[in-house]
Amino acid sequence: MDAAVPDPTPGRAFLRACAWDVAVRKPGNVSRASDGHGMQAQTFLDSAAASVDGLCMPGARVGARIESATAASWARVGCNTNLGIVLLCAPIAAAAERVDAPSDWRGAVVEVIRHLDVADAEAAFRAIVQANPGGLGDAAEQDVRSAPSLSLRAAMTLAADRDRIARQYRDGLAELFDRGLPALAGAIGPLAPGDEAWAVPEDAVSTAAVQRLYLGWLASDLDSHIVRKHGEAVAHSVLNDGRVWLRRAEAGEPLDADPAWAAWDHTLKSRRINPGTSADLTVATLMLALLGA
């Protein structure tokens, strides 16, 4: 794996975050350690490489970033690998153009989301329809298959109670700042964006940090992707298992050393259970951290 020091730019941070995501075993998710759901780690890396230019178009609206990145990803790999990641990272990429210091990040993200309009919603809806995420279903208001009449943030707010990614739009990515970044800092310590330790994880400390971050998301709320595809009972079961593993991770146990960790991964995949929303939140947190938020 490339161990070069990354540039603190949105494109490099996005690609590095996506590489971190598949570099370590995260049960239920595709990784270099374990294929699953008809995909391999390289599928996700190819998807990230295809979508980065659209996601990071200078001066582009958030909706245009989402639509362009999703279309490019779909053209490259022919399936939905990163819609949730793109939805979360598009406001981050847009906010990066407003940031001069780490203290600017939260306010910049809030401003980007506050100024989303109906055109952003139209573009995002087209992207969601193209990606066709599993278990999407129909919405009583502002269904993505119909023309929106509200801003993207307002439309996401309508779905916030049932979808954790939509909740981030409603709340200005608050969970990323209040939960994700502190959890990552607690696991790996404070790092500058250009720190050599931000290389794709091959050491035990970095691997454990990514796994702990993922488990923190998985154990803190029902995974929206699991709920859509399998229902709340299954999502609760996975959440409870995640809490057990999170306690072990927080105690410093090397999870990969326990065969039960890989067995859990295999069991989830054999049941076609993919905590995809938790993975999406992991990537977005890593991108923010790599940018120095």
UniProtKB/TrEMBL annotation:
GO terms for molecular function: ATP binding; triphosphoribosyl-dephospho-CoA synthase activity. It comes from the Bacteria. This is Triphosphoribosyl-dephospho-CoA synthase. It comes from Sphaerotilus mobilis. Pfam families: CitG (PF01874).
